[in-house]
Amino acid sequence: MSGGSLFKIQKRIIYAIEAVLDIALNAGVNPVQNVAVAKRQGIPKRYLEQTLQILVKNNILVASRGPRGGYRLAKERRKIKILDIIKSVTTEKEVNDLYKSNISKIIIQPMISKFLEESMVYLNKVSVEDIYNQYKQKNKDNFNKKVDFVI
Question: What is the pTM of this model?
C-alpha cells in the first residue's frame, strides 16, 4: 500500500510546496511571476495568488509589485524547511475539527497526533535546497542553473 492512498494531503499544501520549489528553480535576476508558476505547475491562478500571499506573510517568499514584479525566496533554499511551508498554509483548527466522538478524542486523535509529530520531525529536516537538488538530479537534461537568493 502506498503512502498516498493512506492519507489525503490537502491541495493547498501540495500547491504551496510546488510553488516554492518552482520559484526556487526559476529564480533569476527578475522575480518569478505567478502566471508562469500557475502555467508550469497547473495550479489555478486565483488560488495560487492566495497561497503565494500567505507564503509572503509567513516570510517564505517576498513579493515585488509592478509589471516586472513577482516572487522570490525570502531566504536561502537551505533555510526554508518543508514544514515551514506546510505550517504557513494550514491551521490547527482544521485538524482539531476532525475529532468529535469520545473514541476519536481519547484513542484516534492521540494516535494520529503521534504519527503527525513524527512526520513533522522529518519534514523539519527537509529543506527547499534538498528537494531542489532532488529535482535537479532527476531532471538533469531540462535544468538550467539559476540564482539561489537575491538581496
Answer: 0.82
Domain-located, residue 112: yes
Tell me the CATH number at 52. Answer: 1.10.10.10
Q: What is the pLDDT of residues 9-33, one digit of tens each?
A: 889 999 999 999 999 999 888 899 9
User: How far is the C-alpha of 102 from the C-alpha of 85, rounded, in Å?
Assistant: 32
Q: Give a yes or no: residue 117 inside a domain.
A: yes
Q: How far is CA 49 from CA 36, 38, 54, 142, 145, in A?
A: 12, 9, 9, 26, 26
- Categorize the per-residue pLDDT at 109 as very low, low, confident or very high, splitting at 50, 70 and 90: confident
The domain in which residue 62 lies consists of 3-142
- Maximum distance among all Cα pairs of the chain, rounded to whole angstroms: 55
Q: Is 54 exposed, middle or buried (CB count within 10 Å of its CB: 0-12, 13-18, 19+)?
A: middle
Q: Cα(109)–Cα(98) distance, rounded to whole angstroms?
A: 9
As for how many domains the chain has, the answer is 1
